[in-house]
Design brief:
heterodimer; A: about 160 residues; alpha+beta; Ubiquitin-like (UB roll); DNA polymerase, domain 1; five-stranded mixed sheet; about 15% strand; globular; B: about 800 residues; Aldehyde Oxidoreductase, domain 4; seven-stranded mixed sheet; 19 helices; about 25% helix; about 25% strand
Chain lengths: ~160, ~800
């Protein structure tokens, strides 16, 4: 019987302990051991961006991370993007502008967009395109996603002003 | 209208944005086991022996499955029941399932699969169209027509020889459309639960739960009423989840053997082996044109590289000849098609199913004809449009056709007249048109039942539950059902629950393929909702003591049209109707109209109605590197009516994106018998940095046969993109790339040839001789006849 190891992680602001095989990636621990199935996977080898989470606010591919190395980090998953049922403005504009088709790449893209906003609240179209360069989407052709990110940025700007 | 035509949120949009939507791999059941499949490493080999002893002795292994335990074959088409769940005796492509294991966790199942030893005896693999046409002692499938020729088809509508005789210009050219794959972000996954009462439940990422239901019953030898198939929301489909798959059956059998629920989730590499993607097609297109720009006739030949199994391939073969006739009037048409078996993962239906390939050849030929005749390519197309309410040369019924407006709109929006042949060297514009089905006219297996059914249930709270067998693959079919029922009943989508894709709970809908769902489920939903309105209106009219025809439903209430102050809310209306008529429930269904074509093979191509698209692509070609930069795409799509314009635009933009991927980079290539690029890094697809701005124009001319006038939008807009790219490359740098993908290497090769005074072209140079079957002769409608064949040629071939 392979041994499981106790991991102490901070996920969506909550400290948690979980026993998992040492060979498991953060993606597998999130989905299989912690029941946080909102993080999706499209390749499990770091090629599609679907499994993106935030590591201390920076986008990271959970399929390439070993959780034992992340005990001092803050991990944010899609479950942590909305606050007690209150949608993040990005989630609202994605839903309103049809940026979600099958919805499978959506969690990863929302988190990458969130990280982009943290550094650059008014990104240009080119900056959005570049930020999402590692996230594949097969349904939308990306255009509605760009528009939803731009709308969220504009609304944020309008509220701030 | 309060809902139809409005840019509303999808009913599942918020769930998807918060990561709450349950895809198949998100399902976890108590005591669930995990399965893995051992796949062939050989493209073509006999299996000498399979030794599972080392896997059996591994702790945590709960069940092992080999092919001989499931000897009954399956396949999507009744004529191609050629797949085993796991290979028996022979493997026919690298990646074919050979054995399956269920274990306590995924790691143990992986280790167990690694421990299974298979001894192979290699056979010479067939990896190309050229090899597939050679005589063979070891045909890949014994039921093929001849050697590795799976299927040939041949039709003649009118006299094409005479048509070419009287043409002033005959263009005869060869084209190649490379194979490519769907690449949905979600890898296929299934969960099987075998109940102690001898019942089976399968959750799966499938576009066609009804066909999976039938395949499971057949292979597992269970009566279908003991099997429940639930289609989970698909994380993208594009046709890649339309077949019943080995892993779906294997996981069910493993659950029965182990007595515990079992999940299987494929790796990305395995998804490439499931494939069923675009057939590589070699084509010969011969188009006759008079000097004043009228098409006199078309002859089209195709050879499809089918892969190792039938899948939808027979239908795909017909589709490479079916829709050349629906955009431009052809007085005479001849089609010959052949599909070959090769030792590759099976090809099948991808967005546009068998029609993007011939559309490439046809639309490039038209561009070439326009240049030779000195006619603008947009004008040449406008001159030849098929009229509305007409029959095509091959007896397809065209009802509404908004193609004229589509072409006029993109010509205007793109500034075509100021750009075509006028942009500086290195930049160009290209134009192409297309047409697609709004649902296949016939079901996949012959029957007289409806293709789509809807049931409505009414709760006293005013909640309406819609039950329908359709499957939401991201296109928004659940939302379309809700919008339509809400519109008819005058309620809000928040008063509606949608239950779809569950063979125990929902009436049959054939599945999310052939762009059939909005039209067929939509019409079924309208019928069910109008039947409910009959009951509700009568009950409310009695309550308000007014005639029934004065009842209006809107904004969650039912009013007296002549005195809107008198009304009841929708919940009250349901209660009144339930008191009057008993428990409320209605059904609706849809069957397509009968086809005018009555000849054998005429069942592929008919559709209730057709969508049309026209596109202009503007691009720049770097003459030093051959790299193409797409600057902008303008596309107009005849959708009849947009039920939700936001979702319609999303479908158009997604189609343009996928078309650009096929045109520029996506290709399924093989080396030494194995897939060359079975990963998302190596299989190139467009990223956010590759997509161009897309200006979409929805042309809305409601079609009387569509729900609220709607036609399809999910597939058709892909079709004009690849030929528009090829035509734009010619406008930019003066070389013809007669195949896709249009890679920088091909452009440089053609530019080099041109600079050396040779033909500035890259594309296939020869078309192999194929023994097509004798043609079925059918008289075009305007020459008389009744849609029947004038002959019924006996198909004979040596050895059959």
């Amino acid at each position: 019987m392979r041994k499981k190891h106790l991991l102490k992680l901070t996920i969506n602001g909550q400290k948690c302990e979980v026993a998992a095989y040492q060979t498991r990636t953060l993606l597998e621990v999130l989905r299989e051991d912690l029941g946080l199935a909102g993080t999706k996977h499209g390749c499990e080898v770091g090629e599609c961006g679907t499994c993106a989470v935030l590591l201390n606010g920076q986008p990271a591919l959970s399929c390439l991370l070993l959780p034992a190395e992340l005990e001092d980090h803050h991990i944010t998953t899609i479950e942590g993007l909305s606050d007690a049922g209150r949608l993040d403005p990005l989630q609202t504009t994605f839903a309103d502008l049809g940026a979600v088709q099958c919805g499978y790449c959506t969690p990863g893209i929302l988190l990458v967009a969130k990280a982009l906003f943290a550094e650059n609240p008014q990104p240009s179209r080119a900056e959005i395109e570049e930020a999402l360069g590692g996230n594949l989407c097969r349904c939308t052709g990306y255009l509605k996603i760009f528009e939803a990110i731009e709308l969220a940025a504009n609304e944020h700007h309008r509220k701030a002003a | 209208m309060n809902i139809i035509g409005k840019p509303l949120r999808k009913v599942d949009a918020v769930s998807k944005c918060i990561g709450r939507t349950m895809f198949a791999d998100d399902i976890v059941l108590p005591q669930m086991l995990y399965a893995k499949i051992l796949r062939s490493t050989r493209p073509y080999a006999r299996i000498r022996n399979i030794d599972t002893s080392a896997a059996e002795s591994l702790e945590g292994v709960k069940a092992i499955l080999l092919g001989r335990e499931l000897p009954i074959t399956f396949g999507i088409l009744p004529v191609s029941q050629d797949e085993h769940t796991l290979a028996i005796d022979v493997v026919r492509y690298a990646g074919e399932p050979v054995a399956a294991v269920a274990a306590v966790d995924e790691e143990t199942a992986e280790e167990a699969v690694r421990r299974i030893k298979v001894e192979y005896e290699d056979l010479p693999p067939i990896m190309s169209i050229e090899d597939g046409l050679k005589p063979t002692d070891t045909p890949i499938q014994a039921y093929a027509e001849d050697g590795n020729i799976h299927k040939t088809v041949s039709f003649t509508f009118g006299d094409t020889d005479a048509a070419f005789e009287k043409a002033d210009l005959v263009l005869d050219g060869l084209f190649f459309y490379q194979g490519n794959t769907h690449l949905p972000l979600e890898q296929h996954a299934s969960v099987a639960l075998y109940h102690p009462e001898d019942r089976l439940t399968l959750w799966s990422s499938t576009q066609t739960p009804h066909y999976v239901h039938r395949a499971l019953a057949r292979v597992l030898e269970m009566t279908p009423n003991r099997i429940q198939v639930i289609a989970c929301p698909n994380g993208g489909g594009f046709g890649g989840k339309s077949d019943p798959f080995s892993h779906e059956i294997a996981v069910a059998k493993l659950a029965m053997k182990a007595g515990k629920p079992v999940k299987i989730a494929l790796t990305r590499e395995e998804v490439f082996y499931c494939h069923r993607g675009r057939h590589p097609v070699l084509m010969r297109a011969k188009l006759g044109v008079s000097k004043d720009g009228n098409f006199t006739g078309l002859s089209f030949q195709t050879i499809l590289d089918g892969g190792a199994y039938g899948s939808y391939g027979v239908a795909s073969t017909y589709y490479t000849g079916a829709l050349q006739t629906t955009t431009y009037h052809l007085p005479a048409y001849k089609f010959e098609g052949a599909r070959l078996f090769t030792n590759k993962p099976p090809c099948g239906p991808k967005r546009g199913h068998g029609t993007p390939q011939p559309r490439l050849g046809l639309e490039i030929q038209i561009d070439k004809a326009a240049e030779l005749l000195g006619i603008d390519p947009a004008d040449l197309r406008l001159r030849n449009l098929v009229p509305a309410d007409s029959l095509t040369v091959n007896w397809l019924t065209i009802r509404t056709i908004g193609l004229r407006r589509c072409i006029e709109k993109i010509v205007e929006a793109s500034g075509w007249k100021d750009k075509f042949r006028k942009l500086p060297y290195g930049r160009g514009v290209g134009l192409a048109c297309s047409c697609y089905l709004t649902g296949a006219g016939l079901p996949i297996y012959w029957n007289n039942m409806p293709q789509s059914g809807v049931q409505l249930k009414f709760d006293r709270s005013g909640l309406v539950t819609i039950f329908c067998g359709s499957t939401d693959i991201g296109q928004g079919s659940d939302s379309i059902l809700a919008y339509i029922v809400a519109e008819v009943l005058g309620i809000d989508c928040s008063s509606i629950r949608v239950v779809t894709g569950d063979t125990d709970l929902t009436p049959v809908d054939l599945g999310s393929y052939s762009s059939r769902v909005t039209l067929m489920t939509g019409n079924a939903a309208i019928q069910a909702a109008e039947r409910a309105r009959d009951l509700l209106d009568e009950a409310v009219a009695a309550e308000l003591k007014i005639p029934r025809n004065r009842i209006v439903a809107a904004e969650g209430r039912m009013f007296d049209a002549e005195d809107p102050s008198r009304s009841v809310d929708f919940a009250k209306a349901v209660q009144l109707a339930e008191a009057r008529f008993g428990t409320l429930g209605t059904t609706g269904c849809y069957s397509p109209p009968k086809s005018a074509a009555k000849f054998k093979g005429g069942g592929v191509g008919p559709s209730p109605t057709y969508s049309f698209s026209a596109a202009v692509v503007q691009l720049a070609v770097d003459r030093e590197t051959g790299i193409i930069k797409i600057e902008k795409t303008w596309i107009a799509h005849d959708i009849g009516r947009a039920i939700n314009p936001l979702l319609a635009l999303g479908q158009v933009e997604g189609s343009v994106y996928m078309g650009l991927g096929e045109a520029l980079m996506e290709e399924h290539e093989f080396r030494l018998g194995v897939h060359k690029t079975p990963s998302m890094l190596d299989y190139k697809s467009p990223t956010s940095m590759d997509i161009c701005p897309v200006e979409t124009i929805l042309v809305e001319e409601p079609d009387p046969i569509g729900p609220f006038g709607a036609k399809e939008v999910g597939q058709g807009p892909l079709l004009p993109i690849p030929p528009a790219v090829c035509n734009a490359v010619y406008d930019a740098v003066g070389v013809r790339i007669d195949e896709i993908p249009v890679t920088p290497e091909k452009i440089l090769s053609a530019l080099k040839a041109k600079s050396q005074g040779k033909d500035g072209r890259y594309g296939p140079s020869s078309f192999p001789s194929v023994e097509y079957r004798d043609p079925v002769f059918v008289m075009p409608p305007w020459e008389g006849g009744d849609g029947r064949a004038m002959n019924e040629p006996e198909y004979t071939r040596k050895g059959t």
